[in-house]
Amino acid sequence: MNRKKYTYLNVLIDFLSAAIAWTLFYVYRKYNIDYFKTYVEPKVIFDSQYWLSIFIVPCFWLLMYYLSGHYNDVLRRSRINELYQILFASILGTILLFFNLLLDDYVANYRYYYKSVSTLFLFHFSITALGRFILSTHINNKIHSREWGFPTLIVGSNQRAVDILKEINKLRKSIGFDIKGFVHIEGSNGFSDELKKMIPHLGEFHSIQKIIKDYQIEEIIIAIETNEHDKLNEIINDLYYLDVHIHLVPDTYDLLTGQVKLDAVESLPLINLEIVPMKPWQWAMKRFFDIVLSLFVLITFSWLYIILAILVKLTSKGPIIFQQERVGKNGKRFMIYKFRTMYTDAEKNGPALSSDNDPRITPFGKFLRKTRLDELPQFINVLKGDMSVVGPRPEREYYIQQIIQKAPHYKLLHKIKPGITSWGQVKYGYASNIDQMIERMKYDILYLKNMSVLLDIKILIHTILVIIQGKGK
Predict the structure, then answer these.
(1) What's the CA gap between 392 and 384, in Å, rounded?
(2) In angstroms, rounded to a whole number, what is the distance separating the alpha carbons of residues 37 and 313?
(3) How many domains does the chain have?
(4) Which of 94, 104, 20 lies closest to 60, judged by CA?
């Protein structure tokens, strides 16, 4: 089950489908539109204009699909949802092509415009949908026949875990859960001998990070007993920190009251615990926006980078760029880049947060912090994929452990990439102690619950105002 292979195969099918559809449309246009310009049969169909467009137009469609999130996790797609995605992208793409390439066509009357648009849409949608349907059917057959599956771990060790496992095993078609084993909640009810006979016991919950890494777990099913629900928040907080899909076996009470939104798959009801509201196309748009904006800033303001680098070097001894390890998405460590704003021996006595009138900050560093210009090198972090332009500010492990002791739900912020700027940074600014970091976190949790591309733009506008007014804290 090679994800990259099938992602590339999707891209290839889309490219070929778009090329075939455009070729058929080009022939149609030569005989049904261009003909009425001279009333002479075309001598050359595939002219130089065609050979140029046969590469550009399919690339345009690939960009459309990328921005729609079509290439995110291609092995988990629903064929019906995929059909809707193709339909929406085909309508939008056809309209864009019409206004950019076809509107200047000479036509006898406007009905030929409608014919052009509808013909291009029908060619493209039908051929692309057919290619995708064949590939998706192949993937689904592999999953339904249990030839492929996503490594899955059950959190829970008693009757509810036994029941859900039996439900999964008796399904006529597999839904993709390849059960590797179970873990039990330490200090709880122990574990069922019946369950241990059915699947391996992989350990206790406190070892779940190592278990997920060792068994490459992608799916987790929480199947704990009612009397273990006091541990549920702790379990979910710990799992949200990890790059896994989380499902919860609901209580009968949950089902009857309708307090939860269920993903009913075949006869298996599970609650899909997704904290981030963004859809795949929005994630793709956010990443596209990150790349375009980062390249724009790095190229357009390269002169500013040079000036700031010279001033940092002239105003204090030490390196121009400050590097420090931070914790990013899913707990991944990375080196963050900033223009240095402190003297080189700032942490000779150990880690310490900055504060107002901090003597460790250089005079020019104060200006950089007020205007947030010290963050400019982080656009390199964005291009590398470690950060986003907008997202919760990344912290050091040293402070994260202290924050988690007081606010365990801080781990939720590691579900997304950290950012150069954030709602918390705009509303609160730099934090001088752990309590202030927790206070700022409230804004970042609010951002997490309401993420959207439009909200990112709003936060960027506020950030620009902070930079212009020099109100950075």
Answers:
(1) 17
(2) 68
(3) 3
(4) 94
- Which is nearest to 352 in space by CA: 402, 317, 302, 308? 402
Where do we find the tokens 């609650």? Answer: 271
The gap from C-alpha 23 to its chain's centroid, in whole angstroms, comes to: 34
Does 105 share its domain with 243? Answer: no
Question: Kind and range of the H or E element at 235?
Answer: helix 232-240
pLDDT digits (tens, 9 = 90+) for 103-129: 555 555 566 667 788 899 999 999 999
Print the domain residue range for 91.
Answer: 3-144
> What's the mean pLDDT in 265-276?
67
Over 70: is that where the pLDDT of 245 sits? yes
DSSP state of 457: H
Q: Which residues pair with 323 in a beta bridge?
A: 337
If asked whether residues 239 and 284 sit together in one domain, one would say no
DSSP structural state of residue 251: P
pLDDT one-digit tens code per residue, 396-451: 998 898 988 888 888 888 888 999 999 888 887 777 788 888 888 888 888 888 88
Average pLDDT rounded to a whole number, residues 33-47: 62
Which of left, alpha, beta for 470 (phi over 0: left; psi -120 to 50: alpha)?
Answer: left
Q: What is the pLDDT of residue 284?
A: 80
Whether 333 and 442 map to the same domain: the answer is yes
Contact between 410 and 385 under an 8 Å Cβ cutoff? The reply is no
Distance of CA 347 to the CA centre of its chain: 35
From residue 220, give the alpha-carbon distance in Å to each of 183, 196, 205, 277: 11, 17, 12, 19
Tens digit of pLDDT for each residue in 347-375? 777 777 776 677 888 999 889 988 889 99
**Residue partners of 244: CB distance under 8 A and separation at least 6:** 212, 217, 218, 219, 220
